[in-house]
Amino acid sequence: MQSLVSPNYLTNYRRTLLLAYPVVLSQLGHIILGVVDTAMVGQIGTVPQAAVALSNSLYTLVLVFGLGVSYGITPLVAAADSTKHFAENAKLLKHGVVINTVLGILLFVLLYFTSPVLNLFNQKKEVVDMAIPFLNVMMLGMIPLCIFSGFKQFTEGLSFTKIAMVITVGANLLNVLLNYLLIFGHWGLPKMGLMGACWATFISRVVMAIGMFLYVYFNKHFKIYWKGFNKIKITKALTKKILGIGVPSGLQWVFEVGAFSFAVIMIGWISATAQAAHQVALSIAATTYMMASGLSAAASVRVGNELGLKNREGVRTAGFSAFIIVLVFMSLMATCFILFRNYLPLLFNNNADVIAVSSSLIVIAAFFQLSDGTQVVGLGALRGMKDVKIPTIITLIAYWIIGLPMSYVFAFKFNFGVQGIWYGLSLGLGIAAVLLFLRFNYVSKRI
Hints:
It contains 16 helices and no strands. The chain has about 450 residues and is mainly alpha-helical.
C-alpha cells in the first residue's frame, strides 16, 4: 500500500479538495437555510422554535431524499466525461432535470396531504398548530430545490462546482434578509412571525433554481449538451439506470437523517424545552455533516472518473484520500464543539434551560463527528463505483434496527432522557462508519 503522504496521495488530496470546497459550501447552504430559520425564529420564542424542529423532522426527510435521488446522475456523468462521451451526457442532463422536476412535484403533493400526521405523535398542541402550515410552505419549496439540484449534480459530475456554491451563498444571504423583513415586519412589510421564515426560504429556493438554469443554459462550456436537446427522448432504460443509483442514495440519507428526525418525536414526549435543545444541537451537528457530505460528493466524482478510466488503483487512492481528509476535518470540528459547547447554543436561543441541555448534546455530537464523516464519505465513494444496494441495507440496519431502538432504551428505560437518545444515534453512526469503510475496501479491490 502506498504511503498516505506519497506524491500520488498528495496529488489526490489536492484534486479532491479543489473539487470539494465549492461543493462543501453549496451543501452547507442547503442546511444553513434551516439553521438561519432556527436561529431567527428562536428570537420569538421556544414554542415556535419547537415547531420548526417538529416540521423539520418530516421536511428534512423529504429534502435529503430529493437531494439523494439527484445524486444518481453524478457518477454517470463523471464516468462519461472521463471518456468525452458528450452525447451520453446530453441525455443525462435532460433525464436528470425531468426526473428531478417530477420528483419535486410528487414530494410536495405527498407531504402536503400527509402533514396532518403530526397530530398523531402525541406532541404539544400549540407546537403542532404552528408546525403544519410552516411545513406546507417549506414543502412547496421542494419543487424549485429539486430543479436546482438536477442542474447542480450534472455540473458537478463535469467537475464544475463553483457556480452552485456562488448561487447557494447568494440565496442564503437573501434568506437572511427576507427573514429579517418577514419575521419581524421591517421596511413596512407585515410581521409574519414563524410563517415569514418559511416564505423567505421558498423565495430563496426559487432564485436558486432560476440562477442554476441560466448558468447551464448560457455558459459556453455547456453549449454542446443543448444541441438537439429537444429531440432527446426520455427512455425507460436510462431513467431506470439513474433511479437505480439515485433512489438507494436517497434512501441512505433518509435512513440516517430519518433516525434523527424520529428522535424529535421521541424527544417531544419529554418536553418542548428538550425538543428546542435538540433542534439547536442538531442544527450545529448538521452543519458539519453537510460539509462532510460535500467531501462525499467530491469522492463520488473522483472515484467515478477513475472508474470510467478503468483504473482500480486510482479508484482506491481517490476513495482513501477522501477518508483521510474528512477524518482530519471532523477531528477539528469535534475539538471546536467541545471548546465552544457553552457558546454555540447562544447563537440559536437565549433560554437558559435550552442552552444547558443543548450544550450537553453538543458534547455527544463531538464524539460522533469522526464516525459521521467516515460513513458519509463511504457512501459517496461507493456511489462513485455504482455500489448502492448493500450500503443502503447497512444504513437501514445501523440506524433503524440498532440506533433508534437503543435510543429508546437509553432514554426511557435507563432514564438518560434526551442525552440517551443521542447515545443511541451515536452507536448507529459508529456501526455504519465501520461497515461502509470495510465495504469500500472490499469492493474497490474487486473492480
